[in-house]
Amino acid sequence: MTEALLTIENLNVSYRGNGRSAHILDGVDIKIGRGQSVGLVGESGSGKSTVAFTLLGLLADNAEVSAGYAAFDGRTRNFAARETASLRGTDIAMVFQDPMTALNPMFTIGTQLVDIQRRRFPRESRKALWARAEAVLADVGVQDAAARMHRYPHEFSGGMRQRVVIAMALLVEPKLLIADEPTTALDATIEAQVVEVLHRLRQRTSASMLVVSHSMGLIAELCDSVVVMYGGTVVESGKVADVLHRPRHPYTQALLACEIDPYAAFDPSQDLATIPGNVPDPARRPQGCIFADRCPARHDRCRERPPQRHARDGQNYSCWLEVA
Amino acid sequence: MTALVDLSRRPGGTFALFAVTLLCLVAIAAPLIAPYGPNAIAPASRLMDPSLQHWLGTDQLGRDILSRLIFGARVALGISLSVIAISLTAGVALGVGAALSPRAVDLVIVGIFDIVTSFPSIILALALVAVFGPGLGNVVLLVSIVFIPHFGRVARAQTIAIRNSPFIEAEKVLGAETWRVILHHVTPNIIGPIFVLACMDIPVVITIEAGLSFLGLGVRPPLASWGNLLNDGYTYLDQSPWLATFSGLSLMLATLGFALLGEALRDTLDPKLRKNL
Amino acid sequence: MNALILKDAVIRYDRLTAVDGVSLELRRGETLGLVGESGCGKSSVARAIVGLQPLAAGTLTIEGETLQDAPARRRTDLQRRIQLLFQDPAASLSPRMTVRSLLAEPLKIQKSHSPEAWTRIVALAESIGLGQQLLSRYPHQLSGGQARRVALVRALAAEPSIIVADEPTAGLDISIQGELLNLLRTLRGRLGLSYLLISHNLNVVGRVTDRVAVMYLGQIVESGPTADLFRNSAHPYTRALLSANLTLDAGRRRERIVLSGELPSPSNPPSGCRFHKRCPLAQPRCTREIPVLQGRPGERSFACHFPLRSEPAPAPQAIAG
């Protein structure tokens, strides 16, 4: 395998304020291969969005970032120094959950799709950029793209806006596309349309993709590999199919057990699976395994930090339990 | 208590608390602390300069200025608090009523508010008093009318903002009568900004009352209103500057105190500003 | 015996007809699911059932008594038999009231405040994990889960027989949504409740409802027992909606029907079948004739000129992992 597009090892992010310090990310390792699509899955408080924001240099001013090693596109980078802000909008593009945050209500879609390309292609004429924008807009499934270019964001439906934002991200020809909950705000049949657009894109562009979501279903649809986060740490990572069918970390196992398959036979009097307990407070993180408090397989060793285990098929997990 | 501490740490907060507290204490304890009666005439000692007997001097009838100012605080505070109490109650009732009524009723109430506010407050008060005649009761009632739209508008806007919120709807689903929803759930949640407004309106009322009295349309002499005092001081300004100076200063202290208190209160009640302290 | 019957309900907002002739039957002790996408009118139906939105036409029958025929005083009593669980439970709690007064509110409103009644409420609160120490807290001092429980106990304190739950799992992490659904199921048996569950989460609806009704643009297009409807949907919209559900099962993903176009505005619904513009199987007849709901109400029924044939139900599969 060639060198990865993005490698981050031992990423730590903490916030200081009011005399307290909260550790949001603790030793996160992430690797995204060229052309690969990686899913970052976790529940609220897992730190998955913080990873995305760190990559984009969008963290708040009181955030302290440190990484053992970080490289993007063959060059080492210092994510702590906000150097990554220069990658934003050129090498790294982002699709947000709420498309309205990315669109300026005062300008037409066409103007915004042209302006976004200026930094990337400063020498191109407006006419050429406009034509490119129109083509990409049609590409992401906006019908009648030529006319739609002259419309304002409020004249688009939610699904169409999200397509516009995806087009916007594609126009800069990024090496990495980050999608943060790209379909969460959409209705089911519209979500299916956007998933299809993203799916087509995967086959068409060489860009790598990082899909951040709480939905295992979305990750399963769009990604090759998945990184499971809990309480600011990576508990398990590996190929999507492997992690789904043979989860090794107790948290991944418990999370997948909570997924409901409405087509499966079930006993209606049986309780639905849950994970009792709460996500640990980032200001008071436990010394040992982050999941120990809620883990059904907890034992004495869990008071110490669990080791990283590497299974033969490339699946990684951090747990004291040895899983065959 | 913490609110008071928080208030005092706002810009001008300490001064506001000091001025308002002083004013209230003086007004309450007027008969105890005033060295002379407010209307005790002493023709022998007319228009005297400040001295040990008369700390702030005497007026054209030989009355002690300090004593008159102290009793004047009673009038100023009494009138302004009554006016605010009446206009706040009526304004909140009308404003909440408008927000929760059918559109036609709402339009009529808002229309009346618009008409009243389209006149400058002092001019309208002047016109009303000129028509209905001066006197304590009339002044209180007529100035109240001028201030009703202030409270009515804020109450209406606040009510519209929360009338469809889930916690109001939850009460309706439980079967609560309308009066219960208004009294227990709407009013407590809109009253904060209205109290701030009340604080900021008190000095305006004090000035309007003083203005009316100055023009002879407010409180009738010999009652010691600051406006009357100012008027007297103005008349005899060439012979003695003390009366005008001290009554003007009292007026300034009171208006500044309440205005700053209102601003500090607004900042204290706003959770977003509270965090930045 | 039906707990609730909604018949030919029409709901209008000014000139917009959000719900156009919807009928529902909620049987005693069952959970009925109401699904559909935004703008389909499912929330309007919920609001009308709990009395927050007047019906422009149609009737609501609660435990055999028709609301529209009852005298005004009786109406309030009948309406109280239905309580609503709000989508955002924390926002449904009056911010300047303590938990104690919030929970006592239903008793005060019904003028049935007595020490016994209050003891019963406190016991109910404790039975679902709300300790007495929470009684003096204000809503903003509660965690999300606690606020949810306080809202639930308050609704139950009104002694309803029917609970309308509006997106109860929206915004909940998957690891805790089961806890809420388990609690609701336990309470249903213990207190003899019937549920109307409004949700866009098809996984949840498929797992916890007995019957389900699917809405599209202000009308019910299909309804029936949940398991049967999920496996043998007759209406193309139901089929597309169910297939759009994101799944961990790669096999089912391949059968996805991706609809073209967007949800039309309910202010100007298409002629004939409201779904015809997006329907992959539409025929000329669909643009002219309005399909009527066929089949027995409560059992399988659907509104389509060219319903999909039922295929033999696929063998149930185990959940991945």
Structural notes for this entry:
The complex is a heterotrimer of chains A (324), B (277) and C (321). Chain A is an alpha/beta fold. Chain A has two domains: 1-91 and 178-186 and 208-262 and 271-284, Rossmann fold (3-Layer(aba) Sandwich); 95-173, no CATH class. Chain A has helices spanning 48-56, 109-118, 126-139, 145-148, 158-171, 188-204, 216-222, 240-245, 250-258, and strands at 6-17, 20-32, 37-41, 63-72, 75-76, 92-95, 176-180, 208-213, 225-230, 233-239, 308-310, 316-318. The two termini of chain A are 26 Å apart. With 277 residues, chain B is mostly helical. Chain B has one domain (2-33, 53-269): MetI-like fold. Chain C is 32% helix and 21% strand. In chain C, the strands form two sheets. A seven-stranded mixed sheet of chain C has the order 6-7-8-3-9-10-11, with helices on both faces. Chain C has a four-stranded antiparallel sheet with strand order 2-1-4-5, with helices on one face. In chain C, α3 (99-109) runs parallel beside α5. The longest helix of chain C has 18 residues, at 174-191. Chains in contact: A-C, B-C. Chain A binds chain C through residues 43-44, 157, 159-160, 187-193, 195-196, 214-218, 220-221, 244-247, 253-266, 271-276, and chain C through 37-38, 173-179, 181-182, 200, 202-208, 230-231, 240-241, 243-250, 252-253, 256, 258-259, 262-263, 314, 316-321.
Quickly describe the structure.
Chain A has 324 residues and is an alpha/beta fold.
Keywords:
heterotrimer, A: 324 residues, alpha/beta, Rossmann fold, 8-stranded mixed β-sheet, 4-stranded antiparallel β-sheet, 12 strands, 28% helix, globular, B: 277 residues, mainly alpha, MetI-like fold, 74% helix
> Which class do the helix and strand fractions of chain B yield?
mainly alpha
Structural class of the secondary structure composition of chain C? alpha/beta
Order of helices and strands of chain B: HHHHHHHHHHHH
Helix and strand run of chain C: EEEHEEHEHHHEHEHEEHHHHE
CATH H-tier superfamily of chain B: MetI-like
Look at the structure and name the CATH superfamily of the domain at 2-81 and 160-302 in chain C: P-loop containing nucleotide triphosphate hydrolases
* CATH fold-type name of the domain at 2-81 and 160-302 in chain C: Rossmann fold
The strands making up the biggest β-sheet of chain C line up spatially as 6-7-8-3-9-10-11
| Share of residues in helices of chain C | 25-40%
